[in-house]
Structure formats: C-alpha cells, structure tokens
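hi support,

uploading two proteins for the ticket. first:
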Amino acid sequence: QVQLVESGGGLVQAGGSLRLSCAASGTIFSPYRMGWYRQAPGKQRESVALITTDGSTNYADSVKGRFTISRDNAKNTVYLQMNSLKPEDTAVYYCNGLWGPSNYWGQGTQVTVSS
C-alpha cells in the first residue's frame, strides 16, 4: 500500500519561507505525477504545483514566481519551496501522487502565515 508522508509545515511570518517535503513508501515504482494541493478553511481543495516524471511543472497562478516544486525520482520524494509567503497561503497542504489510475494523498500539513 502506497503511503505519502508530508513534513515541513509550520507557522511563518509574511514574507518568510518554508519547504515542504513528501516521501512515498510502499512501492518501488515512481509515480507519473506528484504534486501539492491546499485547502483553506471554507474553501475547496485546489492544485498548487504539479510535477511529472520528466520534470514538467504546472503552477497555480497565485503562486507562480514564489513557489518551486521539485522531485527526486530515486527517492520518490517531492518538495515544495515556498518563498515570499502571504497570509492567503495559509492552508492545509496535501501531497498527491499518481501511479497509473491510482491516486494517493498524504495526511496534510498545516501552513500558517501571519501578517
């Protein structure tokens, strides 16, 4: 059974930085796509950043130029470097991995940005 475990969330002041990590276990196969989603209170979960096996990336307009997604295929790990954080970035951030038709989620990590 595939498991995704996130780390790196926390409390930071506006303008600060955080780095999220997500490690996949329970499989020797690299997912086609890994990424990060977030959900703020009262809002729907939204895509933040995605990266495929060949390194192609996709970012939400709201984070372009501030967030960078990367992955280590050998370790089945994906990272999200978040710079110039804003209070509106406050949310629970979820790691996601896509292995063929199977979609897996991490348990989520809280990111809180104070103004």
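and the second one:
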Amino acid sequence: VQLQASGGGLVQAGGSLRLSCAASGTIFSINDMGWYRQAPGKQRELVARISSDGSTNYADSMKGRFTISRDNAKKTVYLQMNSLKPEDTAVYYCNANIVSYIVRNYWGQGTLVTVSS
C-alpha cells in the first residue's frame, strides 16, 4: 500500500493550490484520511481530516480557507487551499487509515508548499 501526494508548489500570498493524495495497492477499505503539515523547525501538525462518511474537522487556523474532500472510488483525498499565507509554507503530508491485510496508518511522501509574500 502506498500514498502518493501531489500538487505542491510555489504560490503568492492570497493564491490557491489543490493537493491530491492517491492510495494504491491491495486496499479493502479506507477509514479516516487527512492532511498534516510540517514547517521548518516545527512539529508536524494536523491540517484537516475526513472520515469515510465525509465528516470533517480542521485545525482552527485553516477553517474557512482550506477544504478537505475525498473520492472513495478513486481512493483519493484532496486539500483545496485558498487565501494562502506565508505561514502556510510547509511540507504537507497525507495520512490514511487503510484496511489491507492489516489495518494501519500510512503516510505519503510529502509535498512542499511555498507561499511567497
């Protein structure tokens, strides 16, 4: 099982980016999926999570600017990021609790988002 993240890049403050993360391999079902981020010199923090039935929760600083969604048929989770700020600069990691032959959490490789002022 693998998670492949994409969509990061360089954007100006106030701009938007959409991240994607696709799961592949032998997968029977996917429970929660989410996005975390880690800025230089800081700990990894939650951005947003979405359950298998579509319930979402966000970190306070992302509410109203970021939207998490998922396509269960494509085994993909998305993060739409609007009104980006320089402090959003970080490596963004996707995470998923996947039911394969075992049940465990998987992490994607990370995608860098850089917001210039």
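thanks. also noticed: The chain has a mean pLDDT of 97.
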